[in-house]
Amino acid sequence: MRVAPIDIAHKTFGKKMFGLDAEEVHDFLRDIADEMEAAVRQQEQLQEKLQGNEKALADFRDREDALKQTLQTASQMSERMKVEAQRESELIIKEARQRADIIIKEARDSLRKMYQEINDLKKARMQFEAGLKSLVKAHVAMIEQGHTVVPDPQVQTKVAPAKEGNC
Known about the structure:
Layout: H1 5-9, H2 22-149, H3 153-166
């Protein structure tokens, strides 16, 4: 049987001869009822506080679960971003290597073309020099031939007066 503070405060006892002092018993019962009422109020406050703490704990657990899920999602996203960044960097490197290969090939082709042009220019120069030498030789031969066919007028005038003076 559960006893409430009010039950203690209103409890009456039967009377006997030479029994207890009724006033003293009633004072004691009132003191006990007051103490019990204070204990009940304290218990109710503690119960309310416990319920508040349990609610706060449930909220914290919910937040913890949400944070765990957020961390897990962030970790997964981070991993995906890392893999994607790795894949993208590999793609960039591959494209850069392909471009470098193309540039190197074009440079080599250009260098070959330049060497060919240099060789062609050397051949042209040699042909030009050979043609010029032939032309010069031909002109020199023509000049020499021209001197034998038609004597130089300056050479004859100097030689002729010298012959006349001896005669």
